[in-house]
């Protein structure tokens, strides 16, 4: 069993220890020490990083893992012989960040219990943000803000945070926020004075002021309840800075104050929607004009119109096909578009004997394209790369010859 120095001091970054085992763990060097201040990934908190210094060597610690038997594995860039005396150096910036996030989690979880009786069922610490899952069917924006406010008040009060070990039986009497599911021996309790008492093996602040601040982010529904994302301490500052930069960029695009960005976006979206409608209406009018012109230049029963339009897209030739086949004159329209994806549209006025869907399938089969449709209207797309206008033209000719 490795002696866990971090249990008693979350701010111990330098320590002496001796290598007691040197393992090859799936082709990675894993070192077991007699004692360690390196925190292994457990209880939602991610592992420390750092260095082991042995004589003139500096070896990076890349991961720290907790074994079921109580040993802590330090994955290192290279192995060290058993018996080596080392000096361990924990990455203090990373540890302080984890301490802020983890103590902040206890605080926000306690706030959700106190205010709304919403227990935390899981905690995850990520590289950028952390999440807790609350056992509840819903969480309003106001509730989230209230919990955030309460947690930040407790931070401002700078309440002492203490740790102690107590036997399991005694712990049961204390009304802990959370009891671990399977536990033998003494429980390690983290106490935020007059606010939260819970069992935890993690590293924590000495007083709530060290958490700095807590900022709740998005809340989303998950299988087991509501997942709340949050950031504490310097992460909260970094996140606010990041938000501000993004918002400032958006505001400068609109030449407005950052708080007016939502209103401006709403207006822009409405304008874009109206412009889209107007554009579609114009396209319909142009399609109708084209249709009239084409019909006037064609004869026969039915009129067979074969046309490739290199500068028009699929939407336009579909509109054109509708206009061509909507009138009294029986028409078969075989159209191709060259803008965007190369597209074919075959259409006929209702009640004629050809089958546009079949005609399209046959045409597509020869060029490895995809398409089909009903007897009166069919659409097909050519695979991008390799296909060009001359291919479309020849497909249109072939289809016309089969009518
Ligand atoms: Zn904890």
Overview of the structural elements:
The protein is 35% helix and 31% strand. It contains eight helices and 20 strands. The strands form five sheets. A six-stranded antiparallel barrel has the order 2-3-7-6-5-8. Strands 16-17-18-20-19 form a five-stranded mixed sheet, with helices on both faces. A hairpin with a 5-residue loop joins strand 17 and strand 18. It starts with a strand and ends with a helix. Zinc ion (ZN) is lined by residues 43, 102, 106, 200, 202.
Radius of gyration: 35 Å
**Number of helical segments with 4 or more residues:** 8
List each distinct ligand once.
Answer: zinc ion
Distance between the termini: 85 Å
What's the short story on this structure?
The protein has 8 helices and 20 strands.
């Amino acid at each position: 069993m490795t002696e866990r120095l971090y249990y008693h001091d979350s701010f111990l970054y330098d320590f002496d220890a001796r290598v007691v085992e040197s393992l090859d763990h799936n082709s990675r060097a894993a070192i077991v020490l007699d004692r360690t201040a390196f925190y292994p990934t457990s209880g939602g908190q991610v592992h420390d990083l750092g260095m082991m210094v042995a004589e003139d060597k500096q070896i990076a610690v890349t991961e720290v893992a907790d074994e079921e038997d109580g040993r802590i594995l330090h994955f290192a860039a290279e192995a060290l012989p058993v018996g080596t005396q080392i000096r361990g150096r924990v990455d203090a910036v990373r540890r302080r960040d984890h301490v802020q996030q983890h103590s902040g989690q206890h605080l926000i979880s306690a706030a959700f219990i106190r205010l709304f009786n919403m227990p935390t069922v899981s905690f995850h610490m990520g590289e950028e943000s952390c999440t807790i899952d609350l056992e509840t069917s819903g969480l309003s924006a106001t509730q989230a803000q209230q919990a955030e406010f309460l947690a930040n008040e407790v931070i401002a009060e700078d309440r002492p945070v203490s740790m102690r070990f107590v036997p399991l039986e005694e712990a049961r009497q204390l009304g802990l926020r959370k009891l671990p599911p399977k536990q033998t021996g003494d429980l390690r309790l983290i106490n935020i004075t007059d606010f939260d008492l819970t069992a935890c093996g993690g590293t924590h602040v000495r007083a709530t002021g060290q958490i700095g601040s807590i900022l709740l982010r998005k809340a989303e529904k998950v299988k087991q309840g509501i997942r709340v994302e949050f950031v504490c301490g310097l992460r909260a500052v970094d996140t606010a800075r990041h938000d501000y930069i993004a918002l400032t960029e958006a505001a400068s695009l609109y030449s407005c104050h950052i708080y007016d960005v939502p209103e401006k976006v709403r207006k822009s979206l409405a304008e874009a929607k109206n412009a889209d409608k107007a554009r579609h209406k114009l396209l319909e009018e142009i399609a109708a004009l084209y249709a009239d012109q084409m019909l006037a230049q064609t004869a026969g029963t039915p009129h067979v119109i074969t046309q490739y339009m290199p500068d028009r897209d699929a939407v336009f030739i579909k509109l054109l096909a509708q206009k061509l086949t909507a009138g009294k004159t029986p028409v078969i329209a075989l159209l191709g578009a060259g803008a965007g994806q190369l597209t074919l549209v075959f259409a006929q006025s209702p009640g004629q004997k050809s089958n546009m869907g079949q005609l399209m399938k046959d045409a597509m089969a020869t060029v490895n394209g995809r398409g089909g449709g009903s007897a009166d209207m069919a659409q097909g797309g050519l695979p991008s790369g390799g296909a060009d206008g001359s291919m479309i033209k020849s497909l249109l000719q072939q289809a016309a010859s089969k009518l």
